[in-house]
Amino acid sequence: MEHKNPARLARNQCLSTDNWMSKYDKSEMEVWVEHPPANRGNHEPKIHKIKCKMTIKDVSAATMYDVIHDGQYRKKWDPAMLDSFDIARLSANADVGYYSWLCPKPIKNRDVVTLRSWQVTDDEYIIINFSVKHPKYPPRSDIVRAISILTGYFIKPTGPNSCTFIYLSQADPKGSLPKWVVNKASQVLAPRVMKCVHKAGQNYPEWKQQNSPDQKPWLYPEQNTLAMMDPAELLIQRADSLENVDECSKVDAQDSEDSS
To answer: 77: helix, coil or strand?
Structure first.
């Protein structure tokens, strides 16, 4: 299974300003979407690219990195999460996992199976994932299987207790999502989730003290008890092999409501 250096791709896109259009900019937070091709009518292109940047002045980069990794803690702070679990380990800094999330009604909920990897250098933390096919976790009938083409977190310290936190998502949600859904995602949902992440960072040190404070397998691979898996058993999940769900008819009323 090949994937061209996704960590470098994610880092470059996190820091790039070309072709990104600002959708939200206030209170130390910015959200951009990539310029969509012209003349697509009411429906957005299949691939949705969104990027969020937070300037955090009261939480260290190391703490924010732990927050994103800590699956137990995520259940406490992630308002969109339906279910999340690790499936298998691929190496000291890569694993496969499942995540499902709530979508605004009447859109169907989504899920993904992704290969996640991470790296830490002296002054940068990077976590990235992309969709894979796992033989034991095929698409379910009650949830739409979406595609993470490249999702990443880029965290850079700006001081001992402050950092820049960037989230990048390049995804195919599978389905013909109307414009109001995409706009709501970039202008309402993304800032809301980023605020939750920031608050999670503020509360994490105290929570972690009470919950296995020394257990951080993402920093100490020897603590990882997940079963090992051969990466050769995985395939990159291509969007065209999954069913496209047309949800437009369900949301016409909401669409006209939002544009009025």
So the answer is: helix
- Report whether 155 contacts 163 (CB < 8 A): yes
20-34+46-236 placed in CATH 2.40.50.140: no
CA gap 258, 260 in Å, rounded: 6
**Sequence-distant (≥ 6) Cβ neighbours of residue 115 within 8 angstroms:** 90, 94, 95, 96, 129, 130, 131, 132, 231, 234
Task: Give the three-class secondary structure for 236.
Answer: strand
Instruction: Write the single-letter amino acid at 107.
Output: I
CA nearest neighbour of 60 among 204, 187, 191, 190: 204
* Span 205-244, pLDDT tens digits: 999 999 999 999 999 999 999 999 998 889 888 777 776 6
Which amino acid, 15?
A: L
Give the whole-angstrom CA distance, residue 150 versus residue 47: 11
Cα end-to-end span (Å), the chain: 47
- Please return the burial class of 184, using the count of CB atoms within 10 Å of its CB with bins 0-12, 13-18 and 19+: middle
pLDDT digits (tens, 9 = 90+) for 88-106: 999 999 999 999 998 877 7
Helix spans in the chain (H): 6-15, 61-69, 71-77, 179-184, 190-210, 248-259
The residue among 187, 125, 159, 205 whose CA lies nearest residue 56 is: 159
d(CA 195, CA 210): 23
Cα(170)–Cα(199) distance, integer angstroms: 24
